[in-house]
């Protein structure tokens, strides 16, 4: 494991939220490293800071203190446009819900990022068909999100996150709105894609069953990683 | 391209709201286009009617004869002047006139009259005078001392066609002028007041009767395009080149009327503004609602790397697509309505009289500006009004909007 490259590194990350005058310490000093190709889970109860941590890592949110390196690059050094391009090209993000743009078809949703990247049309179409095959949704490319089940929608989200071959896939409770069978199928699929592509997967969950499929579990409690509880399941 | 596609689909997503917005815009555009067509129509109809009816578009007098008329304020060599005017580009026709007052008697009836000397041929060419004859005939060539009586005057005098009327007045040489005039017809101009004392005589007879030599009091000119009246007036003044003569476009010799017209046009702009306001509020309301409902979507778009300016575009496309199609429909409706009323006219519940013309029906005008003005205004309004919700959409914080509870 040690000869592998670090792909995510955070140092003393802190983030407070103020709501109705009350300050919430959402993240209180997190040092985390993730190596290339990992399939790891951030676990912890609701409100412990999983979403915030993933948002900070992806650069969607900015920390009050601390630093984030992705592939060795300090993202706080980047300008807004630079960061947005970097995120687009290097990170695939799967949200807990509302992942898809309702007015776009499955194919259009998946090719959206490639369109922003300026990938030519034939190439986009080819890759959409490939990735749909990989997430076992072949033939559904012209459906609208509302014509899909919850599990299918999340698989489209995975396809979209992966289609432009980013180095890192961040998924915030991707199975939270799915029944357990669909959820575990989705996880198996992610694990398989992780094996096949070598992409780094970092996902959050508070679901035991999902946890069990992770190769590494990072336990979060009240905005902090609980020491020594980094259990290597493998 | 994709943005445009998304904008289109968003429009169909909220069908009821789209329809509501469209109807507001369609209604606004149609109403605005109609009111402009109607205002322009009124303006042009009235100018045309009253100027062509009698007054003409441009009048030429000796100095201040228009404000302080006098038998002695005459135009010499009217024929030469008229010929020069007739050659100016844009001039349609011209006609000389003489005005004076006199006393007319028939048997035991006597009435004060306004003597109007007209050139039978030119007057008819310029103001279609023969059409105003309601009984009898127009002046015949080579017959001396014929008169056309205003209808009201004929009633007062109990005159019949063929009657001989005694007319008394004062000649320019100070002598008493009196002579017989044979009634050949009755004239109705829709202005009853005017018709109660109009005594029309051919120009030559009038000049002789009043000892005016070859002089006249007025030259009335009509032009081909009413909008060029001022331009042509200037040219006439230049070409006539006589400091004793005053050339007045209708805006000057019908000052009060011109002012009333202008005030009326101001009213049109106010109503246009109100319509725009209604459209603006309607658009703002629907766009703002749509944007607020979709903040999560805009957050997602931003999280995926969409630039804020593209999100602004997306929202603006949506408003402008709706505006665009509504403008087309609204304009088509207005075109149909304006077309109908340009042929059939709109009957006024209360007619009014001015300059010897009675206005009871207005034709709308079909011109480009009745459509371009509302279209441009609505597109601009929609863009300006849509910009603020668009900005709000573009500013959506993905972290907040995508938070799941
Ligand atoms: N935008 C926000 N405004 C206020 N409080 C927030 C905001 N986002 C998160 N929090 C608070 O920060 C804490 C961590 O939230 P979150 O990262 O969403 O936890 P989790 O994803 O583990 O459920 C919670 O107490 C939450 O209420
Ligand atoms: Mg969360």
The helix content of chain B is 40-55%
Q: Tell me the major beta sheet of chain B.
A: 6 strands, mixed, barrel
What strand order characterises the main sheet of chain B?
A: 2-3-8-5-7-6
Quaternary structure type: heterodimer
Shape of chain B: elongated
Could you tell me how far the N terminus lies from the C terminus of chain A, measured between alpha carbons in angstroms? 12 Å
Poorly predicted ranges of chain B: none
Query: In percent, how much strand structure appears in the residues of chain A?
Result: 25-35%
Question: How many structural domains can be distinguished in the coordinates of chain B?
Answer: 2
- From the spread of the alpha carbons, the general shape of chain A counts as globular
The CATH superfamily of chain A is identified as P-loop containing nucleotide triphosphate hydrolases
Structural class of chain A: alpha/beta
List the ligand species. adenosine-5'-diphosphate, magnesium ion
Question: How many DSSP H or I helices of chain A?
Answer: 7
Rg over CA atoms of chain B:
32 Å
Order of helices and strands of chain B: HHEHEEHEEHEEHEHEHEHHHHEEHH
Total domains of chain A: 1
Q: List segments of chain A where confidence is low: pLDDT < 50 over at least 5 consecutive residues.
A: none
Largest interface pair = A-B, 25 and 20 residues
Description:
The complex is a heterodimer of chains A (234) and B (405). Chain A has one domain (6-225): P-loop containing nucleotide triphosphate hydrolases (Rossmann fold), CATH 3.40.50.300. Chain A contains seven helices and eleven strands. The radius of gyration of chain A is 17 Å and the shape is globular. The longest helix of chain A has 18 residues, at 180-197. The model of chain A has no long low-confidence stretch (mean pLDDT 90). The two termini of chain A are 12 Å apart. Chain A has helices at residues 50-58, 80-90, 106-117, 121-134, 150-163, 180-197, 208-213, and strands at 6-19, 22-35, 39-43, 65-70, 73-74, 91-94, 168-172, 200-205, 216-221, 224-225, 231-232. Chain A is an alpha/beta fold and 234 residues long. Chain B is an alpha+beta fold. Chain B contains 14 helices and twelve strands. Chain B has a six-stranded mixed beta barrel, surrounded by four helices. Chain B has a two-stranded antiparallel sheet with strand order 11-12. The chains are: A alpha/beta (234), B alpha+beta (405). Chain A binds chain B through residues 51, 55, 60-61, 84-85, 87-88, 93, 95-99, 101-104, 108, 112-113, 115-116, 173, 176, and chain B through 2, 5-6, 9-10, 13, 296-297, 300-301, 303-307, 398-399, 402-404. Magnesium ion binds at residues 50-51, 172-173 of chain A.
């Amino acid at each position: 494991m040690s000869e592998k490259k670090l792909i995510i590194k955070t140092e003393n990350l802190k983030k407070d939220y103020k709501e109705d005058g009350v300050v919430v310490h959402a993240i209180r000093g997190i040092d985390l490293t993730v190596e290339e190709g990992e399939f790891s889970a951030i676990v912890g109860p609701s409100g412990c800071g999983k979403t915030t941590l993933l948002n900070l890592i992806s650069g969607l949110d900015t920390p009050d203190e601390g630093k984030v390196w992705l592939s060795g690059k300090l993202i706080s050094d980047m300008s807004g446009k630079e960061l947005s391009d970097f995120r687009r090209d290097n990170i695939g993000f799967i949200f807990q819900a509302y992942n898809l743009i309702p007015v776009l078809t499955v194919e259009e949703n998946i090719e959206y990022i490639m369109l922003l990247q300026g990938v030519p049309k034939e190439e986009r179409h080819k890759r959409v068909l490939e990735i749909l095959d990989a997430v076992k949704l072949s033939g559904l490319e012209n459906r609208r999100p509302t014509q899909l089940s919850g599990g299918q929608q999340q698989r489209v989200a995975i396809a979209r996150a992966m289609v432009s071959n980013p180095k890192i896939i961040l998924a915030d409770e991707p199975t939270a709105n799915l029944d357990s069978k669909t959820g575990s199928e989705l996880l198996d699929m992610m694990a398989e894609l992780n094996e096949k592509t070598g992409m780094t997967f970092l996902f959050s969950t508070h679901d035991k069953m999902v946890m069990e499929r992770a190769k590494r579990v990072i336990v979060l409690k009240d905005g902090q990683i609980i020491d020594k509880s980094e259990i290597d399941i493998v | 391209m994709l943005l445009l596609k998304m904008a289109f689909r968003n429009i169909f997503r909220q069908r009821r709201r789209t329809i509501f917005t469209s109807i507001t815009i369609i209604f606004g555009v149609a109403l605005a286009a109609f009111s402009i067509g109607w205002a322009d129509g009124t303006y042009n109809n009235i100018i045309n009617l009253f100027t062509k009816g009698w007054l003409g578009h441009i009048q030429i007098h000796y100095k201040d004869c228009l404000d302080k008329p006098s038998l002695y304020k005459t135009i010499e060599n009217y024929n030469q002047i008229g010929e020069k005017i007739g050659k100016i580009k844009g001039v349609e026709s011209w006609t000389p006139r003489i005005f004076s007052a006199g006393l007319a008697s028939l048997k035991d009836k006597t009435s004060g009259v306004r003597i109007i000397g007209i050139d039978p041929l030119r007057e008819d060419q310029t103001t279609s005078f023969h059409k105003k004859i309601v009984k009898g005939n127009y002046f015949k060539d080579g017959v001396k001392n014929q008169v056309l009586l205003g209808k009201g005057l004929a009633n007062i005098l109990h005159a019949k066609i063929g009657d001989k009327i005694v007319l008394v007045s004062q000649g320019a040489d100070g002598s008493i002028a009196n002579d017989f005039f044979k009634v050949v017809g009755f004239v109705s101009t829709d202005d009853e007041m005017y018709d109660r004392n109009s005594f029309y005589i051919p120009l030559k007879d009038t000049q002789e009767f009043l000892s005016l030599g070859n002089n006249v009091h007025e030259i009335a000119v009509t032009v081909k395009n009413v909008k060029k009246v001022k331009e042509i007036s200037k040219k006439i003044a230049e070409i006539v080149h006589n400091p004793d003569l005053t050339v007045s476009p209708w805006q000057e010799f019908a000052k009060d009327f011109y002012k009333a017209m202008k005030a009326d046009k101001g009213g049109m702009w106010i109503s246009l503004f109100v319509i725009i306001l209604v459209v603006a509020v309607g658009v703002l309301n629907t766009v703002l609602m749509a944007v607020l409902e979709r903040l999560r979507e805009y957050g997602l778009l931003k999280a995926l790397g969409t630039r804020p300016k593209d999100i602004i575009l997306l929202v603006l496309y949506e408003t402008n697509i709706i505006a665009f199609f509504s403008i087309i429909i609204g304009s088509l409706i207005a075109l149909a309505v304006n077309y109908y009323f340009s042929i059939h006219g709109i009957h006024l519940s209360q007619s009014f009289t001015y300059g010897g013309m009675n206005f009871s029906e207005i034709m709308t005008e079909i011109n480009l500006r009745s459509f371009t003005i509302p279209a441009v205004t609505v597109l601009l309004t929609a863009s300006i009004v849509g910009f603020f919700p668009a900005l709000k959409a573009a500013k959506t914080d993905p972290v907040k909007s995508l938070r799941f509870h």
